[in-house]
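Work through this:
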Amino acid sequence: MSDIPVEAAGKQDDVRRALALLNAAGARIGNSLDLETTARELLDVAVPQFCDLASVDLYESVLAGDEPRPVGPTSPQEAEQAGFHEADAARRQGPEVRLAGELPRRRRKPIGSPRGELRRVAFASAVSNTPYEYGLPDEEARTGESVIRPRDAAGEGARARANGVAAAAAQPGQPAEVGSTHCYAEHSPFATALRTGRVQNIASQDGSVPAQFGTVVQSTLAVPMVARDRVLGLAQFSRAKGSEPFGERDGALAAELAARAAVCIDNARLYRREHERALILQRSLLPPGDPEAAGLEIACRYLPGNPATEVGGDWFDVIELPGHRTAIVVGDVMGRGLRAAVAMGELRTAVRTLALTDMEPAEVLGALDEIARGLGDPRRQHPQRGNRGSDTDLSEVYLATCIYAVYDPVSRRCTFANAGHLPPIMVEPGEPALLLEVPKGVPLGVGGEPFEEIEIELPEGAMLALYTDGLVESRDHPLDEGLGRFRSALTDATEPLEDTADRVLRTLNVHHGEDDIALLVARVQGLDPEHVGDWTLPPEPRSVARARELTCEQLSAWGLDALSDTAELLVSELVTNALRYGEGNIRLRLLLERTLVCEVWDAGQVQPRRRRARDTDEGGRGLQLVDLLSTGWGSRRVPSGKAVWFQLPRPEEGKAAPDPTEALLKLF
């Protein structure tokens, strides 16, 4: 009670009651990081121990997590331009709120006029038969409250806010109900309280005049909710006719109650803002929509935890690889909060980079393990610390689980590597769901253990599910039970994947919000053998002409004659390079899916390197030509050596294919 003046404390019994009320406020207010819940806790303490009716209004910007406005004018220039003094406001508001000893001055503009709408987040009443929808057309003139009421009921308004939809406005002149937005008349005592940050005591009203709460009010305290010198909203405490009107000590006590609640509400606001920012960061690092992949039909879902839990580090990704292959990744960074989301983003970026180098899955996880240990090394994050081992923060150790798989649609074979993650589930048509036995390595960031990989041939039409632990584990049931329920939910491999993903989330009751959830479901659709051309050529000069012939014949069979000239030229360049710099037999492979991919294999280990030929050089322009005419090219390691590839888009109807002659001229 340090903020309550001694002269306002009153009698000894009143002091005891005030202390008891403040003790109750300290115990019951601020037990949640939810703004609306904290406002209701304030009213639970105040009604009926302190007043008969009460409400809490918060600025819309506060509910959105934005910074609230400061008390009073924002700058001396604004105060000078306003030319408005509190004495003038008091004169216009009546004798009960007028400041003594001041003469009214000419008014031009209000100082620090309340900006933005307020939303009524809580209301409590100890008066029986208090109407919920109340008020008269002239209510604003009598109470100073300008109100916008939503068309829907309070419950529907709450649901609309939960869905991110603003409450709709209806007829003005109706008192605010919970969930509605409103603003106060410019010269009302409520606006003055918001503007000045001071308690306004609206003394006894005539019993014949309806009050703002829909009942006869003896007196009302308009108490600004101020935290860190910023106004968050307004609390109103009213006593009905027959109760003792508010006095000076009551105003001080109300200010203390509102101040305690305001600090808790501001903490909840800051938490909500940080939680939403972390969630935005995490969602921005996930692939948008359902990604496409050759030979796979994919559906993805991500569900964040509830606002009471910090954001997690679950992620998934689908990466296109050369040769129409696809890398599928699902991972989970241990821990919560913004740092977990940032670590997830760094690991996801590293996975994409490593995948494009065409490393084997076990090698990718090995490199990721090194990266994860580097993220948690304080000497790398903070070089200025030097070798001070005592400053090592164990919370900076990043651990993550991850499963990485590479699928080849030509052979329908999938290679898995696992770093401490839950095993994938496969469902064949007409068969029950099975847990795939993938060797489970240590989590990323532990180090010291190599990762193993396993290759599995997936049946045509089979469904593959990768997920994080939030889907199958909670406080209500153990992991084994959750896995069993998940397998039972995957019953039909032919069901549309979008329906499967939605049904799984409904069946497993994932709305507990204890952890975020990532789910990726894929259906195997191998590449049609008719869309694959594969030949082996001897390492001799005539193989160049033979490769051109095979390419033209295959493209003609596919109806892609428009690509024949370009593909023939580029195949000739790659086969010639294989003869000059490679070893062993030459393998030519054409793959047709969304794009045309051509691969030339040989047994050599030396990777081709593009260089810029000088004007006087007779050679060295082959790879430059490949780069000019294709939409992408590269080389990758294969078990028998290397494969150099290029990619061409399918020609669009009515659009001519690019002329290779122009590209040849650009080289000179």
About this structure: The chain has a mean pLDDT of 78. Residues 248-284 form the longest helix (37 residues). The chain is about 30% helix and 25% strand. The longest strand covers residues 217-227.
